[in-house]
Amino acid sequence: MVEQSHTAGWWPRLYEPFQAMGQKVADWVAPRSDASTLENAYEINVELPGVNPDDVDVSIHNNNLIVRGEKRHTRQEKGRTFFFSEREYGLFQRSFRLPPDADADSIDASFSDGVLCLKIAKQSPSKPAGKKIEVRRG
Questions:
Q1: How far apart are CA 30 and CA 59, in angstroms?
Q2: Quick check: is 129 in a domain?
Q3: Tell me, what CATH number does 90's domain have?
Q4: Other CB atoms within 10 Å distance of the CB of residue 123
């Protein structure tokens, strides 16, 4: 019978609040999105309500598709007393790892009604890299 230390049980739980907080911060900063596949392309849709398309930057780095931008603060505060404010402003970033067959040179980006739509073409399947070698009898 293996005896476990009485401290082993509490040690992982010590970090649980920090892990949960880190996930909440990541969820708050990263815009909501969905990804799907079509016959000849992948599609990623990113919700960016209230963001000006000119404030969005899409780039590729190390096979990652990166969406960055900023939702600017535009409300008038003079003469108002706010009871609460749930609107979010500031910088955001979201990164997506591209599948091996994604064509990073063929990406179309469009922005409509607060949604950024990215279509990434799939590369044509290449011929298998191997070939059969005939074994001769000695």
A1: 16
A2: no
A3: 2.60.40.790
A4: 14
